[in-house]
Amino acid sequence: MEIALKDKNVVTLQDISCFGKCSITVALPVISAMGLSCAVIPTAVLSTHTGGFKGFTFRDLTDDIPSVSEHWQREGLSFDGIYTGYLGSRRQIGMIIDFIESFRRDTLIFVDPAMADHGKLYTGFDMDFVSAMRELCSKADIIVPNITEAAMMLGCEYKASGYDEAYIHTMLRRLCDLGCRRALLTGVSYDSGHRGCVCYDRENDCFESYFSENIPVESHGTGDVFASSFFGALMLGKQIGEAMKIAVDFTVASIRATLGDAGHWYGVKFEKCLPGLIESVACEN
Ligand code: PXL
User: Fold this and answer.
1) What is the mean pLDDT of residues 229-245?
2) How far is the CA of 5 from the centre of ligand 1 (A)?
3) Structural domain range at position 248
């Protein structure tokens, strides 16, 4: 008789932006397409994301987090992976840390400190929020900031371009000093033709990177497309290098699929690339 491997069960905690292709509306379809069972805790419901829309609504669901957590503990639920993304407030981060402490067993704690890009904090965040996010990162096994988020958490200079490997490697070592085993920087570009990610593993003291072509367009929500597929690949047991390739290639394909449609500025058409993602995780390596 064939022995089936136990299915992986994960949970993601981030907002629902009802329109705009980011956070849960990206994470759930991507992680599900990869064959993982994904539970969600919506941390807030917004009419749209905050990156370019005006007058969006924001319903804070912070007070639901402990009740959901307590119910799940009574039900005896457990998770192989916990993935946090965009979060709403300092107080909410505190509750998410409590959630992680309650559910951490043999669990991959994956934190995307989604709060800033292009040298600036997203609407509604301040440096107090950044320090709470730094504390959440200290509880993680792996964190996946972009260069802006990393510079803000470390209090070091943000460079949009013209940096070298030493700048990135120093940042990665310092991110791991926060307490996580691995840190991965997204959106790294040493030359105008390429963009990708670089990961540092503190335990093995080693760096790995994966670069693809640089498509010089501003795209919203690509951090979530990358983080969801990277997290999914890790949960499927892929090694870091393979998971980086799967996630970067999926992100680049999603940006490509959106090129030429100016009316689609608010997000990328990742849906069109899900068949390719499914194929990429099915290949043996
Ligand atoms: O993609 C990150 C993200 C998630 N959720 C909300 C956002 C953003 C980025 O701006 O505004 C509500």
Assistant:
1) 98
2) 35
3) 9-282
